[in-house]
């Protein structure tokens, strides 16, 4: 029976899981990652990634007690910029996806006539969360790093490179550089205008293909025998979608780890009216389009609330859930805008920040926690509305990720969405999806539907309370209008900060 190791790097931790082709998880190991946060800056250390990757892979292989491994695959956060020198070593901290320093560069690229053609081909608007603006920021503000860089990589590309020595990533991960699957190439004309060499970007492979083999030295480190293929799966949001078992139109997945990823499937090209609010990614092997997007914080909101209000609790999540359940729908008139790190899908506003609206003397931490919990549901409703603007109708949602461990939040999401909500048995759907794609690549399964039969199980189905749903729609309308009223104030806030602040302290966090 074939085995696959999945190296999964998220915002908070790096994990290694070993799967058998029947869906059984043989072993797993995880280590936390640290982030440096200061205003618009969000950074991690790629050297820490690799050091801990070796540790978790070694631990999981030893725990599984295996001597052979058919394949290793990597799934990691997308749109994070890794700059490598000619020795393959990082030249600077990694600019993470939620880093917003490249806002000006994103606006600069958006104004170029050469970008209009790229936008038409890829359907992808320009944003500071993407990679070309980040590379341009390095060119403008870290000239020596730019001059010494030989490879501009994503985390997927970096980890694949460390595993097999080939500078490569999959086609969906490459889209974050505005790679066009239809044309099969990067935007060469735009890259020339920006002064970015095509040679410095990763090669592109189809999902499920072998991109190399594990070298003898590394096999010796892990005491492995035989040939171990290195197989391209894709970045974490795509893998988690497949690991949720979505196989039909009308189904959607909500995977809430540090961020919330909300996506659905369509077999036709979507029609974005006006400025696109959601992504469309083509999974070529099945001619299926994955539609939706990721925000900046999902489960990360709960971590923030825990750090603020529950630091001294021995069992913080249990207390948070209990207290939030004791508070009325609508948190006694308190609404939370969850934009602590700005926002991606669907509002695409780097300047937005978090707000408690309606705070009164009577409110307690229970109400504030309830408002944060409910905001997690409003995030889903916002993404669902943006997807349905394209003509897709969502009828059911599958929940996974760490946030799905909190039953109250799962019920809130069902009530807010007004849909049947399936909570999956396996919360770690990113690794599950990556394993499924690797096994498909190895020829074990013919496609995603067949793989899902072995890998995906439903733990419970939550029916929405439609009376609560009607109440939440009223609250959601105020949630949306509060944001719209505040939108112009966010830029004024930035202007104020520029005038009054001194350098803010760098905060070291586990997101």
UniProtKB/TrEMBL annotation:
Cleaved signal peptide residues: none
InterPro entries assigned to the protein according to its UniProt record, in alphabetical order: ATPase_NBD (IPR043129), Carb_kinase_FGGY (IPR000577), Carb_kinase_FGGY_CS (IPR018483), FGGY_C (IPR018485), FGGY_Carb_Kinase (IPR050406), FGGY_N (IPR018484)
Tagged with keyword Metal-binding: no
CDD domains: ASKHA_NBD_FGGY_SePSK_AtXK1-like
Keywords: Kinase, Transferase
Residue ranges occupied by any Carbohydrate kinase FGGY N-terminal domain in the UniProt entry: 4-243
Domain Carbohydrate kinase FGGY C-terminal per the UniProt entry, residue ranges: 257-440
An MF annotation (GO) of this entry: kinase activity
Coiled coil: none
Organism domain of life: Bacteria
GO annotation, biological process: carbohydrate metabolic process
PROSITE patterns registered for this protein in UniProt: FGGY_KINASES_2 (PS00445)
Family of this protein: Belongs to the FGGY kinase family.
PANTHER family found in the cross-reference section: GLUCONOKINASE (PTHR43095:SF2), SUGAR KINASE (PTHR43095)
Name of the protein: Xylulokinase
């Amino acid at each position: 029976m074939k085995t696959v190791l999945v190296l999964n790097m998220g915002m908070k931790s790096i994990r290694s899981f070993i799967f058998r082709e029947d869906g059984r998880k043989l072993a797993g190991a995880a280590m936390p990652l640290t982030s440096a946060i200061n205003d618009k800056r969000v950074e991690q250390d790629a050297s820490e990634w690799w050091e801990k990757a070796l540790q978790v892979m070694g631990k999981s292989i030893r725990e599984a007690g295996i001597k052979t491994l058919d394949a290793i695959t990597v799934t990691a956060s997308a749109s994070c910029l890794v700059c490598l020198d000619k020795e393959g070593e990082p030249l600077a901290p990694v600019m993470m996806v939620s880093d917003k320093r490249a806002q000006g560069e994103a606006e600069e690229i958006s104004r170029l006539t050469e970008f209009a053609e790229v936008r038409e081909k890829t359907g992808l608007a320009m944003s500071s969360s993407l990679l070309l603006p980040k590379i341009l920021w390095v060119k403008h503000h870290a000239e020596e790093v730019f001059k010494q860089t030989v490879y501009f990589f994503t985390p997927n590309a970096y980890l694949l490179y460390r595993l097999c020595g080939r500078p490569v990533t999959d086609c969906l991960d490459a889209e974050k550089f505005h790679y066009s699957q239809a044309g099969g190439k990067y935007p060469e004309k735009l890259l020339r205008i920006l002064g970015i060499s095509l040679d410095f970007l990763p090669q592109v492979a189809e999902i499920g293909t072998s991109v190399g083999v594990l070298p003898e030295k590394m096999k010796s480190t892990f005491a492995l025998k035989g040939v171990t293929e290195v197989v391209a799966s894709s970045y974490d949001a795509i893998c988690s979608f497949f690991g949720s078992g979505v196989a039909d139109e009308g189904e959607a997945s909500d995977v809430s780890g540090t961020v919330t990823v909300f996506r659905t499937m369509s077999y036709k090209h979507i029609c974005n009216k006006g400025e696109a609010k959601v992504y469309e990614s083509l999974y070529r092997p099945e001619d299926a389009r994955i539609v939706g997007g990721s925000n900046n914080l999902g489960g990360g909101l709960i971590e923030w609330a825990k750090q603020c209000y529950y630091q001294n609790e021995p069992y913080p999540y249990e207390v948070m859930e209990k207290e939030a359940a004791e508070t009325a729908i609508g948190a006694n008139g308190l609404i939370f805008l969850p934009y602590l790190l700005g926002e991606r899908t669907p509002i695409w506003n780097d300047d937005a920040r978090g707000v408690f609206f309606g705070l009164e003397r009577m409110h307690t931490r229970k109400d504030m926690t309830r408002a944060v919990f409910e905001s997690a549901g409003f995030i889903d409703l916002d993404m669902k509305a943006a997807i349905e603007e394209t003509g897709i109708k969502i009828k059911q949602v599958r929940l996974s990720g760490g946030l799905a461990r909190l039953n109250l939040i799962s019920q809130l999401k069902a009530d807010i969405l007004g849909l049947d909500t399936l909570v999956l048995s396996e919360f770690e759907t990113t690794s599950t999806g990556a394993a499924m794609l690797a096994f498909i690549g190895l020829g074990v399964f013919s496609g995603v539907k067949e793989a899902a039969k072995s890998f995906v199980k439903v733990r419970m189905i939550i029916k929405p309370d439609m009376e609560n749903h009607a109440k939440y729609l009223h609250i959601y309308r105020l949630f949306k209008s509060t944001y719209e009223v505040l939108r112009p104030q966010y830029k004024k806030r930035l202007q104020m900060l520029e005038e009054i602040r001194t350098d803010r302290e760098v905060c070291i966090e586990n997101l």
